[in-house]
Design a protein that fits this description.
Layout (H helix, E strand, L loop, with lengths): L7 H17 L2 E3 L8 E5 L6 E6 L8 E3 L1 H16 L2
Antiparallel strand pairs: 1-4, 2-3
Bound molecules: zinc ion.
Zinc ion (ZN) binds next to loops.
Length: 84
Amino acid sequence: MPAWLEYVPAIALVVLGYAALCAVSPVGTCRKCRGWGAAVSVSRFSGRLRRGRECRRCNGHGRAFRVGRRVYHRLARLHGDAHR
Ligand SMILES: [Zn+2]
């Protein structure tokens, strides 16, 4: 029996846990803008936070689908294409 087989249950557990997380809360905080919805920079003049350009990843919502959910969407689309 190859040694990597011993890790399969642990990996399966992690994948299942991640899948469950994606199912419970498919939308997470956008990693690109950390939930701001835009690029944030500190103004050099006033020292205040300034909203920059709207985040392209989440379209300014500050929330983005988790990677796992995107994989699910892709699989669902493939499934739909295959069964038309
Ligand atoms: Zn964003």
